[in-house]
Amino acid sequence: MSHQPTRRFTLLAGFASAALSLAGCNKPASPVFQGMDLTDHAYVKEFRLTDTDGRERTLADFKGKLVMLFFGFTQCPDVCPTALARAVAIKGLLGVDGERLQVLFVTVDPERDSAAVLKAYMQVFDPGFIGLYGTLQQTRETANAFKVHYKKVPTGASYTMDHSTFSYVFDFSGNLRLALRHNQSAEECAGDLRQLVAST
């Protein structure tokens, strides 16, 4: 009995496999980030909040920019000012591409963080940074969509806020790509953002 057809099939399968391997060589390597890669995760795709000038804002307003979004509150003693100061440093490290970075700060304390308070707070770090707020319900819904946890913690006659510390990054097309950890350096974060710039 002849085994020629089987041999021919085996050879063709080998050629096809080699061709696919070569095709794969031409594909750009996926970025390897220092932060958490959220590219294929089912996180939020949109938000709807108000800026300090009273305008309703959605993610679509920032298409064409890298967006870095952070949740916090203006009376935060350390985490929030550290994260925003790092964002200033990241913007500087990106050079010309820093002008394509939009930093958004979402308050988890809308009862105290009025538009005026948020605006003044943003000015301390960078006039181009945008503060966002919502009703208590909008704040909760937005935080839940980002898997952000926060809660009031009584402190005598007042209170403080415990909250998650990730900074979320959307690419130029408005896709959520990264969660930057609070302990990442500005240099590491800027490296991650450079990869997003290079991949678009």
Automatic annotation (TrEMBL):
InterPro entries for the chain: SCO1/SenC, Thioredoxin-like_sf, Thioredoxin_domain
PANTHER family listed in its UniProt record: ELECTRON TRANSPORT PROTIN SCO1/SENC FAMILY MEMBER, LINALOOL DEHYDRATASE_ISOMERASE DOMAIN-CONTAINING PROTEIN
Domain Thioredoxin: residue ranges: 38-198
Which Pfam families does the record associate with it? SCO1-SenC (PF02630)
Q: What is the protein's name according to its record?
A: SCO family protein
Q: Which residues form the signal peptide?
A: 1-23
**Which CDD domains does the entry mention?**
SCO
